User: Fold this.
Amino acid sequence: MCCSTGLTPKQAGRFKKLAFGRSAFCCALFVAPKHLFSDLFTSPTSMFAPQAEPAHEIFRVAMFTLGVTATIFVTVSALLIYVVLKYRQRPGDDEREPPQIYGSTQIELSWTVIPVLIIVVLFLSTARVVYTIQNAPAPKRALHATVIGHQFWWEFRYPGYGVVTANELHIPVSPDPKRPMPTYLKLATADVDHSFWVPRLAGKTDLMAGQLNNIWMQPETPGIYLGQCAQFCGAEHARMLIRVYAQTPQDFQKWMRNQQKNAAQDPKAAQGRAVFEQNACINCHTIRGTVAHGRFGPDLTHLMSRDTIAAGALPNTQANLEQWIKDPARFKPGCLMPAMKLGDHDIAEIASYLVTLH
Ligand code: HEC
Ligand SMILES: [Cu+2]
Assistant:
């Protein structure tokens, strides 16, 4: 027996190990929140730092719900700790059971009615927010765009402008709350279910086969807002990132005017363009103003106006384009663009053509 604890030495050893494991776990618990809290508001995908309607509205109802549930948690924990300490077994207690109470109408009523009231309040406040967001009428000035989820990238279409782009959504900000310029998005999918979620701008909404969903967002300050596909959709689901570029109305119009142009025809890149057009690239990609009309992959008409390729997997540089064309699976294993087995010379030609597409 080990003196004070009543354990054999072997048991005591095991207990020490266990205690060490447990203290490491406790340390981890205390260290983790430090990082967690510093990231909580600064992370580009933090839902605790909304930057647009309807994210503000969602944040308010989330905080209200959290406040109510936290109050319940603290009250119940405090009562529990109090009772456990006050009525713990003490030396010299007799072993008799305390008096048992059966069928107290008062107690039964209180723990039925109070929770019901709390649920009703939470339900009504949430329903009100859902209703106001879903039924917000689009003002005349609103921008309309369509989001189409693909395995594993996003297609953005602006039907009013004849513009198609990928992975980087450009929208205007609304600096003046009296003249809002929200963007209304129709959500559709080309294959399986995806989910569009940019936490600082709006709530999470699924893109589902056979159904059109709608969301809107109205950011106040220019900036890049990040998001991610939030519905497991296959092998590269984790590399299906969203970048929303919220721009001043002037910058947005400038971007839009450039997107409306046909692809640049740089004579210096004619050789590369010929190689591109002779390969299967054109079956999957569109470059407006050329023979490429494919719709399976991203529209490349203004490829170089994007900062990233492959839904945020790589920065958009000539070297990365070459590596990507050579072997897409190296960066996105399981992605739906095949390695075309082209020679290095052809790949370099194609990449030097692609970088002219501003
Ligand atoms: C079978 C269809 C298919 C073929 C053929 C194909 N691609 Fe792709 N391509 C895709 C798909 C799908 C993606 C999106 C991959 C992803 O992000 O998951 C893509 C992505 C790209 C991208 C990145 C675009 C962006 O904005 O993210 C470039 C550049 C590209 N392809 C160039 C080419 C070139 C050049 C060829 C010919 C050598 C080619 N592709 C052949 C389907 C294809
Ligand atoms: Cu997805």
